[in-house]
Design goal:
The protein is α+β, with helices and mostly antiparallel strands. It has 7 helices and 18 strands. The strands form 5 sheets. The chain has a 5-stranded mixed sheet. A 5-stranded mixed sheet has the order 10-11-17-12-13. Helix 1 (62-71) packs across helix 5 (213-228).
């Protein structure tokens, strides 16, 4: 079991992973729902999934989903959650990755595939899709701060995700942390789990800060958000200034435009 405080609600939370035959199922308060039955209910600073009747509603799911995407776990798993959101844990996805990897669940291919090259713009965010034989994600960010590197990439392998992407901590700016504290939130978050960018310094504890850590964390979030839709897709996705709301909208638009397709439909079309 992985337990701790949720970042956005401040509530105590825990998550436990169990092998179980069938589709990935989330259980909260004794009520279960498959991943397919959950919808994106909120994208305010994180991704919240919920059933239409609201009996299951789980916030800040993107880090767990990113770990699932790296390990290509798409079935035979039960995710048991206590609390309104996932615990922050190490601030990234390393703890979730290691707990899931220990289950030894066989990997499955993504449901999504990049069917043709295309580009989707959502506000200030831009997503470029290119067909390819394997999944590859790239991000670029722009916080207008010379201490923060602008890009990161992931070759789609579980090994590189664990060594580089999973360890990228949640980050924020000093004024955001002050706003959370004013609401009584994040007061018990372990300093090792977050990076705070202040005017005169980058504040962190534990592992040294790397200039590309924020970009790697943005890539982590992107992988988790794409997993909601059956990805990350087979092919290359480049995202400039990705965000939770923008990513979910970009996937919807890309599917509608035929840029992204479901893998089974793509295989049927070639048969």
């Amino acid at each position: 079991m992985i337990a701790g405080q949720g970042l956005h609600t401040g509530a105590q939370a825990s998550v436990r992973f169990e092998r179980a035959p069938g589709p990935i199922t989330f259980v909260q308060g004794g009520v279960g729902a498959t991943l397919a039955e959950l919808e994106v209910a909120s994208v305010t600073r994180s991704t919240t999934l919920a059933t239409r009747d609201g009996r299951v509603r789980i916030g800040t799911v993107e880090h767990v989903l990113a770990a699932l995407s790296a390990l290509a776990i798409r079935r035979d798993l039960r995710v048991i959650v206590e609390g309104p959101e996932m615990p922050l844990a190490d601030g990234g996805a390393a703890a979730f990755h290691d707990a899931l990897a220990a289950l030894g669940i066989d990997p499955s291919p993504p449901e999504l595939v990049v069917a043709r090259a295309g580009e989707i713009a959502v506000g200030e965010s831009r997503y470029v899709f290119e067909p390819g034989a394997a999944s590859r994600l790239e991000v670029s960010i722009d916080f207008d701060d010379p201490r923060i590197a602008r890009g990161a990439s992931w070759d789609g392998s579980a090994a590189s995700f664990r060594s580089s992407i999973a360890i990228a901590r949640t980050f924020g700016f000093a004024h955001e942390v002050e706003a959370l504290a004013a609401r009584g939130l994040a007061s018990h978050v372990a300093p090792e789990s977050v990076v705070v960018v202040a005017k005169d310094a980058v504040l962190f504890a534990g592992r040294p800060f790397s200039p590309d850590e924020p970009a790697r964390h943005k890539l982590l979030d992107l992988a988790g958000d794409l997993f909601v839709h059956g990805g990350p897709p087979r092919g290359r996705v480049y995202a400039h200034r990705p965000g939770h709301a923008a990513t979910h909208e970009a996937v919807r638009r890309a599917e509608a435009a035929g840029i992204l397709d479901r893998l089974h439909r793509s295989l049927e079309a070639r048969a």
